[in-house]
Each structure stands twice: as C-alpha cells, then as structure tokens.
Amino acid sequence: MVHDPLRVFNWSVFLQTQIFMLPVMLLFYQENGLNTGDYFLFQGIFSITALLFEIPAGYLGDIFPRRTILMLSYLLFIARLILWLFFGGYWILLAGEILYSASKATYAGVADGYVYDYLKTKNKTGRMLQYYGRLNFFMSIGTALASLVGAAFYNELATLFNARTGFMLLLVIELVFNTVAFFMLFLLPKVPTARRQKMSIGEKYIDLVRITSQTLKDRRLNGYMLYSGIVAGTTMLFVWGFQPLMRETAFPVALFGVIFFINHLCRAGAGFFLHRTVSFFTLKGVAILTYGLFILGFLSAVFVLHMHNKFVTFAALTFICIAIAFQLSFTLGSVGRIHALVPSSVRSTVASVNNLISRGMSGFLLIMFKFLLDKITLQMSFLFYLGCFLLAAFPLWLVVKTPDDSVLQKKVKHMGG
Question: Most buried of 31, 102, 179, 360 (most Cβ within 10 A)?
C-alpha cells in the first residue's frame, strides 16, 4: 500500500484530465464536417446520455469496489481517444461523446465516495471538504494546463502541417497521459464500503427507484440539489458557448486556450479554497452570489456579441469564469453536505441523483441551443436563456429557507432500507 493513496489519486486525476482537445473542439467538429449547431447538439446528447448512465453507475459504486468503477471510467475515455484516432465523421464523433459521457458518469458516481470512505478508515471524515476540494483542484488545474498548451500547440501544428495532423497529435498525447493515469489506479487500496443485501436484477432496480424517489422528496436535499443542478447546467451552457463567442468576435485561435486556462484555473481555485469560501460566505451565501453573477454573465455574453471587440471578449469571458468558480464552490459544498446527511450504503446513489439533475439540465439547454440557432442569432439566444435563468429564483428560495445543517444532522433519516 502506498503511503498516501489520496495523493496518488489526485495525480492520477491530474493526468486523466489532460484534455488538450478541449479549447479547439469546435474546430475539430468543423474539420469532421459538423457545424456550430451540431456542436451544441452533441454536447447536449453527451449530457443526456450521461444522465442515463448516472444513477446505475452510482448504484454500482455502492455494490462493487469504488476503485474498480474508477478503472472502468478511465478505460471508457481511453476507448474514445482510440476511436477518434482511427476514424472520423458525424457518427464517430457522436459515439466518442457517448463513451465520454459514460466515463464521466461512472467517475462522478464514485470519486467523492472513494475519498469519503478512505477518510472514514482513518477517522478523518470531518476533513472531507478539504480533501474533496483538493481532488477537484488537481482535476481543474490539469485541464487548465492542457487547455493552455493544447490550443497553442494545435495552432502551430496546423500552420506547419495541416489541421488534421494537429488534432491527431493532440489525441496521441492525451492517450499517453490517460494510459499512465489508468495504471496509477492500481496503487490505490480497495477501501471498505457498506455492503447491501444480495438482490435480483429486478429488485436492484426497484431499490434504485425507491432511493431516487426518497432523495427527491427529502426536504433537506431537494432544494439544494435542484438549484445545484440548474446552475451546473447553466455553467455548461457558458463553457460550451465560449468557442462560438470567440469565433464570432474573431478572437485569435492561439488564445482560445488562454480562456479555458483561466476557466479551469478559477475552478481549481474554487476547489482548493472550498472550505474557506463556504466558511466565509456560508453555502447559502454562495448560492445567492452565484445567482447574481450568472445574471451578469448572460448580460456580458450579449454585450460581447454587440461590441465584437477582442479585449471586451477577453474581459467578459474572464468574468464568466469567475462566476463559474462560485458555482463550483456551491456544487462541491452541496456534495459535501450530502455526505454529512446521507448514510454510506446509499451515498453514491444519492450523489448520482444530484449529478443527474445537472446532466438533465445541461442536456436540455444545449440541445435547445441547436434549435434556437436555426431560428435566431447567437445574441438573441443568450438573451432568451437569461430570461429562463431568472426562474432559478424559486429553487434558490428553497435553499435559503432550508434549516441550517447543524439542525438537520440531528435528524438524519436512514435511507438504506
């Protein structure tokens, strides 16, 4: 056994999230004959298929060793890279996004659970926010560095050779990093998890539906989970809108990665300073702050498309990145809250219900974007979404009126059956 398994896990996640293709994904789609509408459509399909995988993946994480499910997650992403390396076209890209969604769903269903269960073996569960925030720091900083290097590297390769060669080399580098990350998981111990009684396949799904239903009805959780899902889904709308906004305003391709670097650097900061942020603002305070910042974020996107100025684009997108950091703080804080209120035997399943809401919201917003762009401009589309986001005031109100956690922890219900 390694001296510090969570440190190994952090570095494994760092390598696995070296997604060099991220800041030039729209260009990769266009190279394969797709357009901006397809780009949004596929990201929406990604979120919907991840939604379909989410709860079963979390449920498996409550039955099988979480390390095993993490390995499956990494292998699914490796399969995507191999597929895109050797094939191309509309359906191949779609298949790759579905593999990626399965990878993300299996990871999201067990990663936080693995951290919590390991800390439980060391009697350190009170430090969950610190360690989980650190894991997300490594995840975000990995993607940030890859984005910064990826866009610039692609731009040089496309200039020296051609676009196809640039994309292929980025995929090869990702494959190398992900293979190393996969083998690092063998260094993690198999931490004990709560074992549920053996059931038939039919009974497992009945139990799964029961847990999901109880979670969505639980007043301690539903307001937080609904609001977290809405703001997380809106974040995906912002993030996948970065490249169309930059293309529309003639932002230099070599600098695409800078915006994604800033985004993930802000997300890394949100993870690293999670405990301090929640302590200073309170989780409810972060929720309110996120609501205000997101409204300003939509207005910034509209202003960018009105001005068509590179400096305005850079400033506006940087502001949106900061807003996203506060959203992530709220979402991660909500996940930590789930671990404090929910029994271990159903923790992965409940966490997956939380992710399911955000996946569903992301899928709906992104797929709708495809059809909006067929009818109206990008600028009018962002105005439309601003009007929709204002309705998030209702779940925010549910969050604000929920009793403090110090009271709720005295009333924790047993949901494991």
Answer: 102
